[in-house]
Specification:
Blueprint (H helix, E strand, L loop, with lengths): L1 E6 L6 H7 L2 E3 L2 E4 L2 E4 L8 H9 L4 E3 L4 H13 L3 E6 L7 H15 L4 E6 L5 H15 L4 H11 L3 E6 L4 H5 L5 H9 L2 E8 L2 E9 L1 H13 L9 E5 L3 H15 L5 E5 L2 H7 L4 E6 L2
Parallel strand pairs: 1-2, 1-6, 6-7, 11-12
Antiparallel strand pairs: 3-4, 3-5, 8-9, 8-13, 9-10, 11-13
Length: 284
């Protein structure tokens, strides 16, 4: 038997995860000192989370430890399962150091265990869309090794862009300096962020949210899309702007493209903050 696993940093909505039959590692986030495990929207209320952020709650994310990973993977190895873990970018978290510690211990106990971790070099639905499409491919009867090759052909074709409402939360997470945040907020600059080779980078700096949204839509419209993949629009408790983006995409492509609208979850939301809007797509 074979098992595909993802983690909730992928933001693959629970209904989508259930659809393709992937197991999910629930990643931790902390609100005012209380730890929760993100369950891909099954147990969470995004609006309540972002309202707490707006009201000054202290939020952060945390890594799993080696014992957590052993508890997740040991039953699978004991049962003789072949495991493929499709993970978010290893450049964005130290959690994979603890994963490797756990794997080194488990390999001594289960030397014949079959395990691969595929680094999507992405985050949020930039990872989630790779999980979803790979699981569909696997479910069509392909092997784990064939699925990894499919992922290798997919990874570099994923586009992800998002714009934050304020630079405050990027400052808190150490992504930008306090001086840069203050200057950017004063000028109403909206950096449009993207992922390059597994790390966050600035694609553009636009003055105002409308221009940032236009920039992201233009980045989408200038490429030829993979017809097998949806376009995902994310919003962090700004459904109106998310709907505006989705409507513009539907207007541009008609019925030739499926558009999925989803909430930003607390893992990603803890770093980008309320008011964030983003777009994810796969190039042909």
């Amino acid at each position: 038997m074979s098992v595909i696993i993802c983690d909730s940093d992928s933001e693959l909505w629970y209904e989508r995860a259930d659809e393709v039959g992937v197991q999910v590692i629930k990643m931790p986030y902390i609100v005012d000192g209380e730890e929760f495990l993100y369950n891909l929207g099954r147990d969470e209320n995004s609006k309540e989370f972002f309202d707490k952020m707006r009201n000054g709650a202290k939020v952060s994310t945390a890594a799993l430890n080696a014992e957590n990973y052993k508890e997740i993977f040991e039953p699978l190895f004991k049962a003789g399962e072949e495991v493929l873990y499709i993970a978010f970018s290893s450049k964005m978290s130290g959690t994979f150091n603890y994963l490797e510690m756990a794997m080194n211990e488990l390999k001594e106990i289960y030397p014949d265990a079959k395990y691969q971790r595929f680094d999507t070099l992405n985050i949020s639905w930039g990872t989630g869309i790779q999980v979803y499409l790979a699981a569909k491919y696997f479910n069509e009867g392909h092997s784990i090794d064939e699925t990894v090759k499919f992922l290798e052909s997919l990874r570099d074709r994923v586009g992800l862009y998002f714009a934050v409402d304020t630079l405050e939360y990027l400052k808190r997470g150490g992504r930008i300096s306090p001086v840069a945040a203050a200057f950017g907020n004063l000028l109403q600059l909206k950096p449009v962020l993207t992922v390059n080779d597994g790390s966050l980078g600035v694609s553009s700096k636009e003055k105002g949210k409308k221009k940032a949204i236009s920039y992201m839509l233009n980045k989408l419209f200038e490429v030829e899309l993979d017809p097998t993949s949806p376009v995902i629009v994310l919003n962090a408790d700004i459904a109106e702007e998310g709907k505006y983006m989705a409507d513009k995409i539907k207007e541009h492509y008609g019925d030739s493209v499926n558009v999925w609208e989803h909430d930003v979850g607390p893992i990603i939301g803890a770093h980008c903050g309320p008011g964030t809007v983003g777009i994810i797509f796969v190039k042909k």
